[in-house]
Amino acid sequence: MKMFLKPRFDQIPEEIRETFKWAVWRAEPRSNQPGKFNKAPRNPLTGRLLNVNVPESFADFETCWLAVEAHGFTGLGILLQGNGWVGVDIDNFTKMANVERGPICEWIREALAKGAYVEKSPSGSGLRAIFRGGFPGQGRRAGSLEIYQDKRFLTITGHAIKSIVEEESNE
Question: Which residues make Cβ contacts (< 8 Å) with residue 113, sequence separation at least 6?
C-alpha cells in the first residue's frame, strides 16, 4: 500500500485547530483507479463515514488527534463550512513541469506573504493552502488545482511549508 505522510499535529497552527470542525480518514484504495485512494471523513469515535452536509457530526481537533494515535487512522482533516476560509488543493506539485509550476509558485509566495498556511498533502507530492477569503460559489476545479470554501473535507498533515524555495529544494 502507498505510504502517506504521518501527521505532525504540533505543526498545525492553533487558529486552524480551533476554527474548524475535524474528522479522521483512512486511506481506502479505489477499485476503479489503481494507485488512487479515497480519503473520506470518518467519525473519530465510531469510524463511520461522515457527511459534509452534517457539520455537527464532526469533532474537535484533539478528539481526532487522539483517534489517529490510538486507532490507526491514516490522518485527519477539516470541514470547510463557508465561514470565510478557503482551502486549496494542488495535486502532484512536485511532478509538474517548470512551465506549470511557475505561476503556482508565484501564487504560493504571495499567499505565504499574506499569512496563508501552506503544507504538503498526505502523498507528499501535492500542496494544500488554507487562508481567509472567499469567492462566488462553493468550489472550482481545473486540472490539478482545486479550490473550495464550503461543504468540503480537506485533509491536513501539519507538514508546513514556510517558503516555496523550501519546497522546490525538497524534490
Answer: none
Return the number of other C-beta atoms located less than 10 Å from residue 46's C-beta.
10
User: What is the pLDDT averaged over residues 83-110?
Assistant: 89
Of 169, 167, 168, nearest to 159 by C-alpha is 167
pTM: 0.90
37-38 and 28-29 strand pairing: antiparallel
* pLDDT confidence tier of residue 128, bands split at 50, 70 and 90: very high
Give the chain's mean pLDDT: 91
Rounded alpha-carbon distances, angstroms, from residue 57 to 36, 42, 122, 131: 26, 9, 23, 24
Query: What stretches of the chain adopt beta strand conformation (E)?
Result: 21-25, 28-29, 37-38, 75-81, 85-90, 117-120, 127-132, 139-142, 145-148, 150-156
Of all helices (H) and strands (E), which one includes residue 136? Answer: none
Provide CB contacts within 8 A for 139, sequence distance 6+: 146, 147, 148, 149, 150, 152
The predicted structure's pLDDT at residue 170 = 54
Q: Which band of pLDDT confidence, cut at 50, 70 and 90, is reported for residue 171?
A: low
